[in-house]
Specification:
Length: 265
């Protein structure tokens, strides 16, 4: 039995809360759990640490959580709020003298290679070394466990409207961010988990074309059966205390720094 420690490094949507110039939307500035960095998760077991996504707040998130070493990055998708801190991996590559391993679906890694070519190849010969060791997770690998160090994870496909994203299951917990819809095979991968961290950024806006509504999450969880559902990727229209009052039993809003545990038998 392996125990995983999951830390929500950020539960905000793309601009964070408050957005730049201190716009809090409907969120109460006096409630500390409304202060949200961009979405990211740390997963730790024994001496292994995996981080899901490297958004613009990546360096600050790792330092404030006192994470001393990162083994690999798992990417959900290549939207800027999930990748724009990727340059921080350069210093880890130099310190550890190894190419830094990153994982993602084919679409995500192809987009990263286009946007950050200098991290994938030595463009300035002899001046700036290449940084990344990319690992494509092919479609055929979805739904089956993979391992990095002491951590086993199972990737699954998600529809994010404008692109496909990846979710990751860790034992009896799973992380589903940036999801509009889930294919049946992914529901099967999630069936039986206890803890589900899931994107509810659309809130009650049925017209949202990239994120799930709360109603859709409730419907999915009829089949998945998670007993603790943590809503993440929260917008400025989603106040922490208002959500606590609104959400049904077994559901709760995420907040930055929330620590959870998961078990893998
Ligand atoms: Zn996205």
């Amino acid at each position: 039995m392996t125990r995983y420690k999951l830390t929500i490094l950020g539960c905000g949507n793309s601009p964070g809360t408050p957005t730049i110039c201190n716009n809090w939307g409907v969120c109460d500035p006096a409630e500390p759990r409304n202060r949200r960095l961009r979405a990211s998760l740390a997963v730790q077991a024994e001496d292994t640490t995996l981080i899901v996504d490297t958004g613009p707040d990546f360096r600050y998130q790792i330092n404030r959580t006192d994470i001393a070493r990162i083994d690999a990055i798992l990417y959900t998708h290549a939207h800027s709020d999930h990748v724009n801190g990727i340059d921080e991996l350069r210093i880890l590559r130099l310190q550890e003298k190894r190419l830094f391993p990153i994982y993602g679906n084919e679409e995500t890694l192809a987009t990263l290679r286009t946007r950050f070519a200098y991290l994938f190849d030595e463009l300035e010969k002899g001046v700036y070394p290449k940084v990344l060791d990319p690992h494509v997770i092919p479609c055929e690998a979805y739904g089956a466990p993979m391992a990095i160090g002491a951590i086993r994870f199972t990737p699954y496909d998600q529809d994010h409207g404008t692109c496909r994203s990846l979710g990751y299951r860790f034992g009896d917990a799973a992380y589903t961010t940036d999801m509009l819809d889930l294919p049946p095979e992914s529901i099967e991968t999630l069936r039986g988990i206890k803890t589900w961290i899931v994107d509810g950024c659309a809130y009650h806006t049925q017209e949202n074309r990239v994120h799930a509504t709360l109603e859709k999450i409730y419907a999915f969880n009829e089949t998945i059966g998670a007993t603790r559902v943590i809503i993440t990727h929260l917008s400025g229209q989603m106040d922490y205390r208002a959500l606590c009052a609104e959400l049904p039993r077994g559901y709760e809003p995420a907040y930055d720094g929330l620590v959870l545990e998961a078990f893998d038998s």
